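One-letter codes give the sequence; the fold follows as tokens. Both lines appear below.
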Amino acid sequence: MKGYKAFDKDLQCRGMQYEIGGTYELGGTYELGDAPVYCERGFHFCKSISDCYKFYVRKDEVRICEVEALGEVVAYDRLDYCTDKIHVIREVENPRIKSNVNENCSGFCNSGNYDSGNWNSGNQNTGDYNGGDHNSGDCNSGHWNIGNGNCGNRNTGDWNTGDYNIGNGNSGDRNTGDCNTGNWNCGNFNSGIFNTNPMPTIKIFDKDSDWTVNDWYNSNAYRIMENCPLTHSYFIYESDMSDEEKENHPEYKTLGGYTKIITVTAEDRQKWWNGLSDSDKQAVMSLPNFDADKFYQCTGIRV
């Protein structure tokens, strides 16, 4: 099996010196024998040049060599492999360019064009992990963003799903504040338009209150409700899957695992509520404008 292995500028990896054309075999006496064990024992390599860069922070000093595994091979996540015997075939010239799908990028591991950042699928990005175009921040799926994690366009803040925002966490457009769902607001947490209040009061149970959103976040009620069970999902890697899971989720062969969904019912939430202390229940029921019927509509919990 052939692949690619990354080394530092001196052609070393984890303190071991390698040479072009050299063959290296796992030796010594181990309690579990000489078989390779991922992240513990053996010679690690990847299937692609771009995958090699994921394990090195200082990418400019990385040297990449084409290698061949001559012994037993174990895989991890279909990205990283480990073997007990490896042969260093040759050093890859211009690995940075070859890690990109197109040759007009100065960054690493890009599938877009003219990217100077890394791992971009869009074009002309100077940041990293962008799916859109012309981003100078990171993890943007929109276009022309200077901040990070934006789904919208032309944002200079972070985590905006709207457009033309200078603040952070806006789902509306043209806001200079934070966490606005409306438009043209220079305050925060506004759902209307042209608001300047830096911290407006909020409605609770459909009625006006004297609380701000910060009052809610700092309350015991918020802390308690954060622990209320909800339906959620998480990714199970192939190495952690049971035989039954592999049989029920054949997509793991392509994805390297599957998404497990934990379903939580109203009955589960009711059981959680019933198990709370009286003081915790009272903290929630003491919220301004508390309405038991509306609380049930939102949570499925009877108080």
Observations:
- The chain has a mean pLDDT of 84.
- The radius of gyration is 27 Å.
- Residues 266-274 form the longest helix (9 residues).
